[in-house]
């Protein structure tokens, strides 16, 4: 896992402890949630945090910035505190909580293994700073896309993740996820026995660039829809991210500062700049 994280920033994990029953239930409830009428899905913002239900790319200024997808992006604090839902939402919320609770344990285990390989000793950093309540879950649906390949419309635009780890449960037959390595795109083949794990920006900074947060994207399919569920392993907003060795590539920064900078860049530039903003002696206008 450490070698894959250094070379690719991605790996697939089997024997992960998340039962097929939990995964199947998560997928069933996810499909039901997305099959609701548009107005019903928009109403979720009244039950969860504002902006939970998303579609397309609000910041897009041209066609090739459009994400051909819809999603529920849910802070885990909303799931554990939710009440007074109708039958569909109660069932979906319960499935999300069961899935996220199990995957949270896996995330802690994986982060601990990678930290120990990097430091040469055990670390309590992730146990101390990454509680389930600080993490997020995103349910994605990628509808069939009628645009021709030449239009270069993505299900999800090329990006890196602003977290420590992302654990992804994707369709076991419909592919679409691609990662970028050495300027080339590689398809991540579906494996019904595996969960996909990728390194986020925070782990790259924390490991002083040893583990790689690599760009990835989702390509569209003209004929079939695709579903996936992503768990984002994040710290509390006031957690400070700093390298554990010298000389450090990145300056010390908080997760809150990083999130704010990403949002500012997306608002001004239409894209995320990311970690290059936080290198030592970085200069940006």
UniProtKB/TrEMBL annotation:
> Could you tell me the keywords of this UniProt record?
Iron, Metal-binding, Oxidoreductase
Classification via PROSITE patterns: FE2OG_OXY (PS51471)
> Which superkingdom?
Eukaryota
Does the keyword field hold Iron? yes
Where the record annotates domain Fe2OG dioxygenase, the positions are 133-235
Q: Where are the transmembrane segments?
A: none
Q: Does the keyword Iron apply?
A: yes
Gene3D superfamilies from the UniProt entry? B-lactam Antibiotic, Isopenicillin N Synthase, Chain (2.60.120.330)
Q: Mind listing the GO molecular function terms for this protein? A: metal ion binding; oxidoreductase activity
Family of this protein = Belongs to the iron/ascorbate-dependent oxidoreductase family.
Q: What is this protein called?
A: Fe2OG dioxygenase domain-containing protein
Top-level taxonomy: Eukaryota, Viridiplantae, Streptophyta, Embryophyta, Tracheophyta
């Amino acid at each position: 896992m450490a070698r894959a994280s250094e070379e690719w920033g991605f790996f697939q994990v089997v024997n992960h402890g998340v039962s097929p029953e939990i995964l199947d239930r998560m997928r069933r409830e996810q499909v039901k949630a997305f099959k609701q009428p548009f107005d019903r899905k928009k109403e979720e913002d009244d039950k969860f945090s504002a902006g939970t239900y998303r579609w397309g790319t609000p910041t897009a200024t041209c066609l090739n910035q459009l994400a051909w997808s819809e999603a529920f992006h849910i802070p885990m604090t909303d799931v554990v505190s939710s009440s007074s839902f109708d039958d569909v939402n109660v069932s979906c919320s319960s499935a999300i909580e069961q899935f996220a609770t199990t995957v949270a344990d896996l995330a802690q285990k994986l982060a601990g293994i990678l930290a120990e390989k990097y430091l040469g000793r055990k670390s309590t950093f992730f146990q101390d700073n990454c509680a389930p309540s600080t993490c997020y879950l995103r349910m994605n649906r990628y509808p069939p896309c009628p645009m021709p390949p030449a239009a270069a419309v993505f299900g999800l635009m090329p990006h890196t993740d602003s977290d420590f780890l992302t654990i992804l449960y994707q369709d076991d037959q419909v592919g679409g996820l691609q990662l970028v390595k050495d300027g080339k795109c590689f398809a991540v083949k579906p494996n019904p026995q595996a969960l996909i794990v990728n390194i986020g920006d925070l782990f790259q900074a924390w490991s002083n660039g040893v583990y790689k947060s690599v760009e990835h994207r989702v390509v569209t399919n003209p004929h079939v829809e695709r579903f996936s569920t992503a768990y984002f392993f994040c710290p509390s907003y006031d957690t400070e991210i700093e390298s554990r060795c010298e000389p450090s590539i990145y300056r010390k920064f908080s997760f809150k500062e990083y999130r704010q900078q990403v949002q500012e860049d997306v608002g001004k530039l239409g894209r995320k700049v990311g970690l290059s903003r936080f290198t030592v002696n970085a200069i940006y206008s």
